[in-house]
Amino acid sequence: MSVQSVNPADEQVLETFEPMSAVDIDHALSAAEDRFYSWRLTSFEERAGLMMKAADVLESHVDDWARTMTLEMGKPLDQAKGELKKCAWVCRHYAENAESYLADEKLKSDASQSFVRHLPLGPVLAVMPWNFPFWQVFRFAAPALMAGNVGLLKHASNVWRSALNIEEVFKEAGFPSACFQTLLIGSDKVEGVVRDRRVKAATLTGSGPAGSAVASTAGDEIKPTVLELGGTDAFIVMPSADIDAAVETAIDGRVQNNGQSCIAAKRFLVHEDVYDAFRDKFVSGMKALKIGDPMADGTKIGPLAMKAIGDDLADQVDKSIKAGAKPLLDVPALPDKGWWYAPQILEDAPESSPAYSEEMFGPVAALWKVKSLTQAIERANESEFGLGSAIFTQDKEEIEQAVRDLEAGSTFVNSKVASDPRLPFGGIKASGYGRELARDGILEFVNRKTISIA
What we know:
It is a single chain. The protein is an alpha/beta fold and 454 residues long. It has helices at 22-39, 44-60, 62-73, 77-101, 135-146, 160-173, 190-195, 208-220, 243-255, 275-287, 307-323, 354-357, 373-381, 396-405, 438-443; strands spanning 3-6, 13-17, 105-106, 113-120, 123-128, 150-155, 180-182, 201-205, 225-228, 233-237, 265-271, 326-327, 344-347, 364-370, 385-386, 389-392, 412-413, 428-429, 432-433, 446-453. The chain has two domains: 3-229 and 431-453, Aldehyde Dehydrogenase, Chain A, domain 1; 233-420, 3-Layer(aba) Sandwich (Aldehyde Dehydrogenase, Chain A, domain 2), CATH 3.40.309.10. It has 15 helices and 20 strands. A seven-stranded mixed β-sheet has the order 12-13-14-11-10-16-17, with helices on both faces. The protein is globular. The protein starts with a strand and ends with a strand.
């Protein structure tokens, strides 16, 4: 059955694709296996040269590929351009650092020589979501290829043109054929690919159920996985904070990518001493956001990527309001066509409401007053998720308490949670396991082989 990509701003069909057949998939997996045996023998210098060219290719296509990204999933065009530039950054980072990250680790033993050598595993499957169509792929692809693995991409079906553009990056850069392949397949084909003997590992960014399914299959086959799943990141504001900076960051952190980000600030826990000042400025700032054509300059809120996302979000908001949450923003007039959802702030959502415990994947913030940092941390840790966390404070003791006690894969102080090629990225609890980026990320899919020479 053919697959259509649809512009979420006006519901117009952009392109129709034919999924790969079973024969096509088999050919792709065979090509990946064959390529791995030669690619693994290339030098770091050769891989780095190609990866640097990949960065150049990305930058040369910023305008057209960003436009495609925005057409397919609705993010503001300037954010799409920034995403492509960030992908070039991660390519250059691993081109410059992979060799040192994977250098032999000398160890002491009774042998004359003992060390750990890092060797590639083989073809690695990446199951990726639509919300950052390029970035989430490249933070896997750059370290995987630099380590000597080859990549297979199963992308979300609403961004298949972007998926093919990603494959084109590596072709234009001069990588040998089958170093990186896009598989145009649906979710129903993922289990078979994971189970295939030629695939040695898998990584997934996406929903909890999708992650659980891939991890279960990979576990059954005894194959390593990395999962980056959902989040309900807490954003804590204490009395010593720069309130204007906290508000500006809170707004940016909540609505970036139209609010469709796992690491978006979603639950705002503000100390009672500064609560009123923060709330008033937060409300004013959210009201002032420009909603509209994601291609237009100055647009901060474009359409949601799919109708189902808006339907689910509306249901969560309605249930939360009925349970007692107070909406702080009026709903403006929105275009008749397209999958739009206006920003909203829900105050004092009770425990029985979706806003209290569920991930809300869109520009909706949940806001509460707290009496202390201890109470804020307790509330933050009630979540089943543990991806990122942020705190605004100038108090060193409060910073130390937050770093020690917040149950999350990261804590950002006086800034929003963000991924950076130089820093490990990942979560705990229902937000997944394993790490991407930095040295940790390239070590996820290598064999840390112990060598002992008598």
